[in-house]
């Protein structure tokens, strides 16, 4: 019986690799120890620093004037929702499964998409208001750009920190990991907006507050992979 | 890898001796050109060296190293559009094999028919890059579908489909070829 050429090819021993390049030999000559990545520690740092920064942003832009008029359950529940939307995608973007170097880009991708869609839909569907709340209506929708700017400014810190922490760790799936970081950062931005903005019409809470997650995820997906790449 | 990250250059050489032959074999089969594969292997290890701080202690570095080699190949293929090079220009086939320690073996029990191996490589080169990679990783390098998917940055389902289609296409191409002298004789 004729041997299978594919099996024969598979049975071939690997070829002898070339010697190390001079450039690499030179770098090995002055090899210094490096601190390796510690994903959980990085996650804790990212969450802590980003929350501190978010609190700073909130202190500058001030808390919403209708906070006392809204149901405490809604304020706390929505706040927790935004917080989870921040922590879960960041966790999936930074922490690989045990025994692996690369983060779980597939789960991170799912988290990014679910977070982005969920906050837009929730914002469109649930938007309680009080006497001090403001309603723009569709005709003043364009005024929402200030919220978008505040949200994106808040998202900047987790995205930048995540990019620094993931440098060199993303040979594949980088765009999805970046999108998850962006969605996480956008959710932190949404949390700040939730505590700051007293505009309660559905288009604003859905498309602007929720939209921050989408815009931050898209911007991160466009910019982070190149910044995290090692050449 | 951990000792290398701690500044031990000899640990890097051990890592290179252990992994470079496999990565080189993968790159030769992907690029089908030894000079290009040499260059890609050097680029891969240079990137590994510069990104070594991204290593997570206790983790298996091999899928990460393969993924860096995969990314390096894709970037180069996009840049120069020379991923598939015409076969038969003399230096495309690795003539000297090595064991996983990086040394050429003293002897092989049953030498394969070089013409059949060349025909298989030629057929492999005709596959689209994604299918070629799937076949190389799963059928030739012995990786599981999940490992291959992790390296190529795709889903397990997509990798399964690519490997199946690639393998079928490869068999079809090999069925259509003329028999080698050894087979004919």
Q: Layout of helices and strands, plus pairs?
A:
The complex is a heterodimer of chains A (231) and B (185).
Chain A lengths: L4 H7 L10 H8 L9 H23 L10 H23 L10 H21 L19 H21 L8 H23 L5 H27 L3
Chain B lengths: L1 H4 L3 H23 L2 H17 L11 H19 L33 H12 L3 H12 L4 H8 L3 H20 L5 H4 L1
Helix pairs in contact in B: 2-3, 2-4, 3-4, 4-7, 6-7, 6-8, 7-8
Quick one: biggest sheet of chain B?
A: none
Low-confidence stretches of chain B: 82-109
**Whole-Å distance between the termini of chain A?**
49 Å
Average pLDDT reading of chain B: 78
Helix vs. strand class of chain A: mainly alpha
Name the poorly predicted regions of chain A. none
Strand count of chain A = 0
Summed over residues and divided by their number, the pLDDT of chain A gives a mean of: 89
What number of domains of chain A?
1
What would the principal axes of the Cα set say about the shape of chain A?
elongated
- Secondary structure tally, helices of chain A: 8
Q: How many individual β-strands of chain B?
A: 0
Rounded radius of gyration of chain B (Å): 17 Å
Strand residue content of chain B: under 5%
Following the backbone from N to C, one meets helices and strands of chain B in this order, namely: HHHHHHHHH
Strand content of chain A: under 5%
Helix and strand succession of chain A? HHHHHHHH
Straight-line N-to-C gap of chain B: 50 Å
Structure description:
The complex is a heterodimer of chains A (231) and B (185). Chain A is elongated, with a radius of gyration of 23 Å. Chain A has 231 residues and is an all-alpha fold. Chain A has helices spanning 5-11, 22-29, 39-61, 72-94, 105-125, 145-165, 174-196, 202-228. Helix content of chain A is 66%, strand content 0%. In chain B, helix 2 packs across helix 4 (62-80) and helix 3 (34-50) packs across helix 4 (62-80). Chain B is mostly helical. Residues 82-109 of chain B have low confidence and may be disordered. Chain B has helices at residues 2-5, 9-31, 34-50, 62-80, 114-125, 129-140, 145-152, 156-175, 181-184. Chain B has 9 helices and no strands.
């Amino acid at each position: 019986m004729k041997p299978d050429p594919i099996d024969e090819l598979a049975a071939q021993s690997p070829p002898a690799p070339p010697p190390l390049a001079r450039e690499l030999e030179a770098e090995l000559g002055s090899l210094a120890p490096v601190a390796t990545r510690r994903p959980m520690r990085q996650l804790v740092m990212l969450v802590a620093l980003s929350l501190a920064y978010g609190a700073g942003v909130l202190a500058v832009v001030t808390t919403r004037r209708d906070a006392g008029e809204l149901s405490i359950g809604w304020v706390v529940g929505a706040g927790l929702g935004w917080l989870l939307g921040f922590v879960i995608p960041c966790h999936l973007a930074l922490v690989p499964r045990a025994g692996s170097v690369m983060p779980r880009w597939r789960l991170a991708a799912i988290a990014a998409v679910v977070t982005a869609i969920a906050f837009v839909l929730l914002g469109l569907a649930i938007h309680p208001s009080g006497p001090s709340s403001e309603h723009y209506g569709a005709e003043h929708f364009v005024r929402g750009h200030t919220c978008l700017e505040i949200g994106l400014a808040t998202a900047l810190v987790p995205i930048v920190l995540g990019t620094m922490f993931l440098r060199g760790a993303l040979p594949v799936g980088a765009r999805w990991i970046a999108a998850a970081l962006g969605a996480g950062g956008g959710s932190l931005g949404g949390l700040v907006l939730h505590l700051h903005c007293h505009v309660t019409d559905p288009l604003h809470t859905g498309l602007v507050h929720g939209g921050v997650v989408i815009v931050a995820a898209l911007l991160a997906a466009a910019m982070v992979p190149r910044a995290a790449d090692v050449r | 890898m951990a000792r290398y990250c701690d500044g031990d250059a000899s640990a890097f050489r051990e890592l290179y001796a252990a992994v470079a032959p496999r990565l080189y074999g993968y790159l030769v089969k992907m690029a089908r050109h030894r000079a290009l594969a040499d260059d890609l292997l050097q680029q891969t290890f240079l990137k590994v060296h510069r990104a070594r701080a991204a290593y997570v202690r206790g983790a298996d570095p091999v899928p990460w190293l393969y993924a860096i080699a995969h990314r390096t190949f894709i970037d180069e293929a996009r840049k120069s559009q020379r991923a598939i090079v015409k076969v038969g220009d003399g230096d495309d086939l690795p003539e000297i094999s090595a064991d996983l320690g990086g040394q050429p073996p003293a002897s092989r029990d049953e030498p394969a028919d070089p013409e059949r191996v060349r025909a298989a490589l030629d057929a492999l080169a005709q596959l689209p890059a994604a299918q070629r990679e799937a076949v190389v990783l799963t059928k030739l390098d012995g990786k599981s579908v999940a490992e291959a998917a992790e390296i190529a940055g795709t889903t397990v389902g997509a990798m399964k489909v690519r490997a199946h289609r690639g393998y079928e296409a490869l068999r079809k191409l090999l069925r259509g070829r003329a028999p080698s002298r050894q087979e004919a004789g």
